[in-house]
Every structure is written in structure tokens, then in C-alpha cells.
Amino acid sequence: MKILVTGGAGYIGSHTCVELLNENHEVVVLDNLSNSSEESLTRVKKITGKSLEFYKADLLNKKQVDAVFLEHKIDAVIHFAGLKAVGESVSIPLKYFHNNITGTLNLLCAMNEANVKNIIFSSSATVYGDPLSLPIKEDFPLSATNPYGRTKLMIEEILQDLYRSDKNWNIALLRYFNPVGAHKSGEIGEDPFGIPNNLVPYISKVAVGFLPRLNVFGNDYNTPDGTGVRDFIHVVDLALGHIRTLPKLFTNPGIVIYNLGTGTGFSVLEMIKGFETASGKKIPYKIADRRPGDIAACWADPAKAKDELGWEAKKTLDDMCKDTWNWQNKNPNGYR
Ligand code: NAD
Ligand code: UD1
């Protein structure tokens, strides 16, 4: 099949391109490189020994999006492109709404016009807000606590409305838990600009000596060791979740929703320990105040994806830490 991957030069997108090419799909990437580098795609080709087509294009420019559909007969779209920093979305909400919502509307209009009606959308566990109980199932109540999360919820609703209006659409909403890790080759991985916001990229910058210590945001949560607990999932498992979802789209399922998580939570202190073991480096840390907006604990019930897609996460905490470290150590400055 020929798959259009928006945001394909980014962290999850590049890992998904590798798995798509490994499965002999044809891959067309559209990315404006606002949070990525074309080097990631060069590395994707190196890992797989296969080629892909790249359009440096912006979803905000409808003509550029249309051009891709005019030039290719696309079977399905995997839509990763979007801005994703929670803190930044609070300071510049209009940029987030414009990029994520308008960008998605342009994509959906272009798809509609080209009669391409199969799409996988990158949603997030953030749409569950602060869950009442754990593990989280797909039918739990939804809420958003920041503009980034609201864009995810709004796009989910836009897609629901689209399907209600036209039953020819096949739409998968994949709600990711906390993606970490890197391809085992160490050629591609997460490459945040500036100081990372998320835990594992921050720990790896400490391990490589670019940052002096980690701040642990709170140790007084109602969790076994008092620090936050999350469902960290290896990015290659996550990428494979998309590969397993693709055939589902072609069974005319309408709208389907899946959690992509492991079903197991690890605390911040467990992640530090795991990373120390994997890297052989000491990770200095200090306990700091809670980060506003954080929840105590969050992990998925991934049973629905296992039952309906035959997908489950296979990689361990050790794989996540080792592969992150291998990428960071081989590429201390990321793709630059
Ligand atoms: P990323 O920033 O590495 O990748 C996103 C890509 O989209 C980047 O390459 C960026 O240049 C591109 N992009 C952004 N706006 C664009 C536009 N207007 N036109 C064209 N390209 C554009 O992020 P990621 O971690 O790979 O995340 C991929 C998707 O998964 C995002 O939608 C994100 O919100 C979602 N998600 C990520 C996480 C996570 O922890 N990484 C968790 C849940 C959901
Ligand atoms: C964050 C976002 C979420 C987004 C996800 C993936 C917030 C409030 N939530 O999730 O919307 O979908 O990233 O991009 O930003 N921690 C530290 N020190 C650090 C960084 C993090 O102790 O320097 C802790 C946090 O308090 C949390 C855990 O590590 O308990 C995980 O944090 P993080 O990696 O930022 O992910 P989330 O907060 O789950």
C-alpha cells in the first residue's frame, strides 16, 4: 500500500516509516521540519535500505497538501504532524490551535477531495485528563487540561463528526501513552530542541553530561515511592501498533479507538534506576516541587488493541533505557 505519513520526519513518525518500509509499503512523507530534521529520513533509508518520497510541505498550506494527493494515489494516511509541547501550548495557545486544528482540517479536506478516506490519527492519553481509576480503558471519560490536550480532543471530535456525515471514512484514533526509546541501530531517536520537557529525554541529557541533574517533580504523590507513575512504551512497539492498525482500516470498521500502552506503570525513580543500569552512568537528581498540571499515575488497559489488532507491546524497561542510551551516546547532539 502507499501510505502518506504526515510528520514522518519526527520522533514517532520516523520509527513508523522504518516499520512501514520493512513491511514493503510505499512511503510518502509530508513534514515542514518545524520540529525535526531531514537527516532522520536519510537514516530511515540507511536502516531499511529502501527509499521514500519526501515533501517539505506545511499542512497550513492547502495547495502544498493537495499537490501530494495529485501526484500520488494514496491508500491511507498516518497523521502525526502537530505541535506537542504542553507548556508551550499554554503560553501560545493560538499557534497550537492554528497548527494542529487548521493543519488537520486542510489535510482532511484534501483527503476528501482526493477520495482518500482512511486515516490513523495520533491521539494521546492526555485526553483522559486525571483518570478516576486505573488502568485506563478507551471508554473512560475524556477531558483536557491544556491547549495541547484540547487540540487532541477537538480533532478526535472532528473525526467523529466526519464519520457521522460520511460512513465511507475509516478512522483509527490511537491514544499513545508515554513513548520512549529509539531504534536499536541507534540511527534514529528523539531529538528535542533545547532543554527537554519530558522525563526520559531529560535523563539522557544528564547521562551524556549536557545537564547537571534531573529535577524529580514531587515525591509526595499517592504512589508506591511517591513519584509519578507512567506507562512508558518503546517507540518501536508504538510504531508496530500503527502497522497492525492499517489492515483494520481496510475492513471498513468506521471509527475505532485504541490505547497504545504496555499496561504497566513505572515511577520516575524506577526510570532513573533503569537508565543507570542501562548506561552505567550515575544520574544525579534532586526532589523538586510538583509540576503544575501533572497527575500522580497513568497506565493503559491495552486489552482492546490486543483482542482486535493482535498487537501488544513486547519490549522491556531495559530495552527502552538501553536503546535511548545507545541513540544518545552515538548522537550526543542529535541529528545536528
Ligand atoms: P515530533 O515533533 O517529533 O513530530 C511531529 C512532526 O510534525 C515534526 O517532524 C514536525 O516538523 C511536523 N509538523 C508539525 N507541524 C506541522 C505542519 N503544520 N505541517 C507539516 N509538518 C508539521 O513529535 P512526535 O513525538 O513524533 O509526535 C507525533 C505525534 O504524536 C504528534 O501529533 C504528538 O502530539 C503525538 N503524541 C506524541 C506523544 C509523545 O510523547 N511523543 C505522546 C502522545 C501523542
Ligand atoms: C507529558 C504531557 C502530556 C504529553 C506527554 C507526551 C504534561 C503535563 N503532560 O506527559 O500531555 O502527552 O508528555 O509528550 O506535560 N518528570 C520529572 N522531571 C522532569 C520531567 C518529568 O520528574 O524533568 C516526571 C513528571 O512529573 C511525570 C513523569 O516524569 O511524573 C513523566 O513526565 P513526562 O515525560 O513529561 O510525561 P507526562 O507528564 O506523562
What does this structure look like?
The chain is of the alpha/beta class. The chain has helices at 11-22, 39-48, 62-71, 86-91, 93-113, 147-165, 199-207, 235-249, 268-279, 303-309, 317-330, and strands at residues 2-6, 26-31, 53-56, 76-79, 118-124, 170-176, 178-180, 214-217, 229-230, 232-234, 255-260, 266-267, 285-288, 297-298. It is globular, with a radius of gyration of 19 Å. 40% of the residues lie in helices and 18% in strands. The chain binds nicotinamide-adenine-dinucleotide and uridine-diphosphate-N-acetylglucosamine. Nicotinamide-adenine-dinucleotide binds at residues 7, 9-13, 31-36, 58-60, 80-84, 99, 103, 122, 124, 176, 179. Residues 7, 9-13, 31-36, 58-60, 80-84, 99, 103, 122, 124, 176, 179 line the site of nicotinamide-adenine-dinucleotide.
Defining key terms:
336 residues; alpha/beta; 7-stranded parallel sheet; 3-stranded mixed sheet; 11 helices; 14 strands; binds nicotinamide-adenine-dinucleotide; binds uridine-diphosphate-N-acetylglucosamine
Low confidence ranges: none
**Count of alpha/pi helices:** 11
Number of strands: 14
Give every kind of bound small molecule, once each. nicotinamide-adenine-dinucleotide, uridine-diphosphate-N-acetylglucosamine
Helical fraction equals 40-55%
How much beta, percentage-wise? 15-25%
Largest sheet: 7 strands, parallel
Provide the gyration radius in Å. 19 Å
Summarize the helix and strand pattern as letters.
Answer: EHEHEHEHHEHEEHEEEHEEHEEHH
Order of the strands making up the biggest sheet: 3-2-1-4-5-6-11
Mean pLDDT metric: 98
What is the general shape?
Answer: globular
Distance between the termini: 33 Å
